[in-house]
Amino acid sequence: MGYYTPDGNSEYQKPKKRGTANGLKWVAVIAISAIVGSGTTFALIPALKATGALPTSLVPSAVQQTTDSSSVTPVTSSQINVTVNNGITKVFKQVEPAVMAVVNYGQVSNTFSQSSQLQPVGVGSGVLFYKKGQFGYVVTNNHVVQGSAKVVAVLSSGKHVNATVVGTDPYTDLAVIKLPISDVQNIAPAAFANSDTIQTGETAIAIGTPMGLDFADSVTAGIVSAKSRLMPVEDPQSQQTLDYQAVIQTDASINPGNSGGPLLNIAGQVMGINSSKIVATGFQGMGFAIPSNEVLNIANQIIQTGHATHPSIGIDGYSLSSLPQPYWPNVPVDYGVWVQKVTSSEAQKAGLKANDVIVGLDGKTVQNMADLRTYLFQHKPGDVVTLDIYRGSTKMSLKLTLGSMASPNTTVQSQSSGQSGQGSSSDPLNPFGSGQFGG
């Protein structure tokens, strides 16, 4: 299926410059990627009109008469008032004011003048989720704001508001920005659902800014296709896999620009934050959202400290089922997480060894990396957990004290302003210790 390729910093189209060839080319480029972040693209309708792919008007210029008008009895029309107020309409009206476009400005070099200037380089979405004191707080994706020197929020009213990046977390692809309270005083923050109670098959509604600002406040709908799909989280610049994340799968249309926008249930509650989709020949309707419980956990940490702190086991590991059977250790199970290497003093002290297979955490069965990550992230650094493992044919339990890692800020704006959130680990790209935790 390939690798996760966020496009939050893709080239940005100013709304006034419509229908460029670059927009069409960019769509073709992302179409060959396996998994893409849903960050930014150009407006396409003007270009399609110019090529004749779309009609410039839906009203026919002339209607050919096929009968003698004198023999036709005139038909009169009457005014019919229709009130559309279904569930999706209600949700959109309720939540749309809290959803906004998030524009990433970066330093763009001018090859002729050998200088650089601040220009918009990417557009995503965000949703207001909290207000306190002098600020309103908006959650979005890390890949939407990564590398930004400046961030501007475009409200549903069309107003442009300078935003400040509070903090980012590349391991979960989440970020929080804040706006002056005066600009969001009359906007109600979106309510969040308990993502543990999400049901496969329930209605899923996405609101965001697909295809750039010309398509702001777009709504699409589908269902929750699956829960806890294990997907890679990659650094948009280095393409290094940082983590594996259990996400919500939906067939609600998620396109470039939807990144950071909400995935809602029929009650208008945020089930997740849209982050990526699969784009490949033969694949349709496979978008993904970060579950709301994880979003709130990380966002609240960022508001409080400027960064998110993750519990750390300190291993290199893979889902046993992802390994070719000839490489399996000699254990009596076909599930769990295989420990390739122990990389932290906490894990060594607990007694973990290479080739152990983790099959449980605090009494919960660990089938794969998704399970281990989900259970692990329910804890905080310093917690003592019980790992059930197989060492060969022998099953045993080990007590392990979780280590910690703080996520780094990934924006130029945050780093230059001295905000907190810089990781202190010698390996800032891995929340689980010095080796990669995932497979």
From TrEMBL:
* Compositional bias annotation for Low complexity: 413-426
Biological process GO annotation list?
A: proteolysis
Note the SUPFAM superfamilies from the entry: PDZ domain-like, Trypsin-like serine proteases
Asked if the Swiss-Prot or TrEMBL record annotates the protein with the keyword rRNA processing, the reply is no
Report the SMART domains cross-referenced here: PDZ (SM00228)
- The yes or no answer to whether the keyword Repressor is present is no
Task: List membrane-spanning regions.
Answer: 26-48
Recorded GO terms, molecular function? serine-type endopeptidase activity
Q: Where is this region: Disordered?
A: 407-439
For this UniProt record, give its keywords in alphabetical order, as a comma-separated list: Hydrolase, Membrane, Protease, Serine protease, Transmembrane, Transmembrane helix
Q: What InterPro entries does UniProt report for this protein, alphabetically?
A: Chloro_Bact_Ser_Proteases (IPR051201), PDZ (IPR001478), PDZ_sf (IPR036034), Peptidase_S1_PA (IPR009003), Peptidase_S1_PA_chymotrypsin (IPR043504), Peptidase_S1C (IPR001940)
Which residue range or ranges hold the PDZ domain? Answer: 284-393
The entry sums up its family as follows: Belongs to the peptidase S1C family.
Name of the protein = Trypsin-like peptidase domain-containing protein
